[in-house]
Structure formats: structure tokens, C-alpha cells
């Protein structure tokens, strides 16, 4: 493991969804949460936006193998998740995906470093090695020195940093975050998103963030907008404009450029 170094990626396209359909209920009561559509996820950060009920969480759950779609495929580096058994998908989630939820969902009795090490210990890594690796990821998210604090002794933002370290500790291919800043104030939320984008990039993982907040989505390199179960728009952030070398010039902040 090399925390902080970019892991080489041989194949840029990590996850591909094709013709995704998710229907809840039947006949008159059917609700079409995903109405068919494609999405490719490669290295970098992707925000999924859209109004309430547009299908954001359902899309995330299908991409992450938590739910099996009614139709369509989700392929992780050549392996179709939709043709796997529940047991196989559960095993794949543990090794290939990391998750960050709205509130950290940390174990109150355990110190930060043990919370971050939990996925490794549950997967059979020895305690000492797991804790050493978790401490590296805590440092990556700016929590060096706070390894021994229990969740009750951490701020909301610090707790989310522990959750980010926990999501990265298994060295996943993709980190999925569902409204990861929803329980934080605006400035802490933006700070945490910045940490999440930077840490996942440094760990060599792709990031998929569901959010309703454009200020949060702006931290991601790419944004898709959903409506009625479909992706209806896609934007790419412009690369940051270099600082002018001499003299004051017009400031151009990062903004979104519509590409679809
Ligand atoms: N378990 C379920 N049973 C029936 N319908 C569901 C279920 N889960 C979601 N839905 C429906 O599917 C549609 C999409 O829901 P989803 O939660 O994916 O949307 P969302 O964009 O994430 O919404 P929010 O922003 O409010 O979380 C909605 O119409 C919702 O009511």
C-alpha cells in the first residue's frame, strides 16, 4: 500500500452501466425509478444531481451492486454485477467499493483508528496491520494525532473524515457517497467534499457523489443531472485557470461547462 501516491490504472474505464431500468411495484402501482440509460465511470469525481425522486439513490445502489436493476447491466472492469449472486455481490462490494453516508455511521465505542480499520479487520487482515494502514488514511484526510478519539469526541466534519478514511482503507476502485455533507453546515460540507475528492484521487479511486447541492457538485470534475429516472444533462468542470504571471487580471473561477 502507498497512501498518498497515485496508483497506476491500466484501464481508465472502471464501471459501465448500460440500459439501466429499475421498476418498483407492478402494474398500476409501478414506479420507474430508472427509465433506461447508460453511464460510464472512469478515474475522477462524478456528482449525480437532480430533484427529489429523480432516481439518484437508486442509480447509486445499482452501480454499487446494492440493488439488482430490473434490466440492464453494470460492469466493473469486465465483470457484470447483475449476473452475480447476492453473496458474490456482497463480497465484491467489500473489496472493490467504499461507501460514505450522510452521517459517518461510526461505532461509538471505538477510537477513530479502529473505526477506519474495521473493513480490513472484518475481512481478515490482522489487527496490527489494519490499524497501521488505517492510521495512514487518517493522516491522508488530515486527522493525524486524533487516532485515539472516539466519535463522541470528534466534530461532525472530523467524523466524516474518519468515514472517508474507512471508505478508502480497503483500496477500493470506486467510492460511493450518498449526500455525504447532508448533516454538515455549508462551509464544513464544502471542506469535506474537497477532502473526499482529493483523498480518493490520491488513493487512485473513482468517486461518485449523490448531492442536491450545486456548491458541493462544483467540487467534482463531472456532473450528471437526473430527472424522472434519466440522465438529462452532463457538465464538465473546466480545469483551473492558471494564476497570471504578472499584473492583476480578470479572475475566472472554476465553473461548469455544459457538454451534453
Ligand atoms: N423501495 C422503494 N419502493 C418503491 N418505490 C421506491 C423505492 N425506492 C425508491 N422508490 C421510488 O423511486 C423513485 C426514485 O427514488 P430515489 O430514492 O432513487 O430518488 P432520489 O433522487 O434519490 O430522491 P431523494 O433526493 O429524495 O433521495 C421515487 O419515485 C421513489 O418514490
Automatic annotation (TrEMBL):
It comes from the Bacteria. Gene3D superfamilies: P-loop containing nucleotide triphosphate hydrolases. GO terms for molecular function: ATP binding; ATP hydrolysis activity; transmembrane transporter activity. One of its GO terms (cellular component) is membrane protein complex. Residues 248-260 have a biased composition (Low complexity). Keywords: ATP-binding, Nucleotide-binding, Transport. Residues 15-253 form the ABC transporter domain. It holds the Pfam family ABC_tran. Residues 240-260 are annotated as: Disordered. InterPro entries: AAA+_ATPase, ABC_transporter-like_ATP-bd, ABC_transporter-like_CS, ABC_transpr_LolD-like, MacB-like_ATP-bd, P-loop_NTPase. PANTHER family: ABC TRANSPORTER RELATED, IMPORT ATP-BINDING PROTEIN. This is ABC transporter ATP-binding protein. It comes from Microlunatus endophyticus. The lineage of its organism: Bacteria, Bacillati, Actinomycetota, Actinomycetes, Propionibacteriales.
Amino acid at each position: 500500500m502507498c497512501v498518498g501516491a497515485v496508483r497506476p490504472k491500466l484501464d481508465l474505464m472502471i464501471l459501465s452501466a448500460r440500459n439501466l431500468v429499475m421498476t418498483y411495484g407492478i402494474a398500476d402501482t409501478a414506479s420507474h425509478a430508472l427509465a433506461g440509460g447508460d453511464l460510464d465511470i472512469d478515474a475522477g469525481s462524478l456528482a449525480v444531481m437532480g430533484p427529489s425522486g429523480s432516481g439518484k439513490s437508486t442509480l447509486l445502489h445499482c452501480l454499487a451492486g446494492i440493488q439488482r436493476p430490473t434490466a440492464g447491466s453494470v460492469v466493473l472492469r469486465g465483470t457484470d454485477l447483475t449476473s452475480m449472486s447476492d453473496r458474490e455481490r456482497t463480497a465484491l462490494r467489500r473489496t472493490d467499493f467504499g461507501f460514505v453516508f450522510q452521517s459517518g455511521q461510526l461505532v461509538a465505542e471505538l477510537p477513530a483508528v479502529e473505526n477506519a480499520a474495521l473493513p480490513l479487520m472484518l475481512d481478515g487482515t490482522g489487527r496490527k496491520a489494519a490499524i497501521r494502514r488505517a492510521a495512514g488514511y487518517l493522516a491522508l484526510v488530515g486527522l493525524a494525532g486524533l487516532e485515539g478519539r472516539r466519535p463522541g469526541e470528534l466534530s461532525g466534519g472530523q467524523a466524516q473524515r474518519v468515514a472517508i478514511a474507512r471508505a478508502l482503507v480497503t483500496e477500493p476502485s470506486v467510492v460511493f457517497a450518498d449526500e455525504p455533507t447532508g448533516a454538515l453546515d455549508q462551509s464544513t460540507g464544502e471542506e469535506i467534499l474537497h477532502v473526499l475528492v482529493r483523498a480518493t484521487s490520491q488513493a487512485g479511486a473513482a468517486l461518485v457523489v449523490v448531492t442536491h447541492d450545486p456548491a458541493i457538485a462544483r467540487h467534482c470534475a463531472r456532473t450528471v443531472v437526473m430527472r424522472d429516472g434519466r440522465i438529462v444533462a452532463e457538465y464538465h468542470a473546466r480545469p483551473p485557470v492558471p494564476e497570471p504571471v504578472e499584473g492583476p487580471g480578470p479572475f475566472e473561477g472554476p465553473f461548469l461547462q455544459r457538454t451534453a
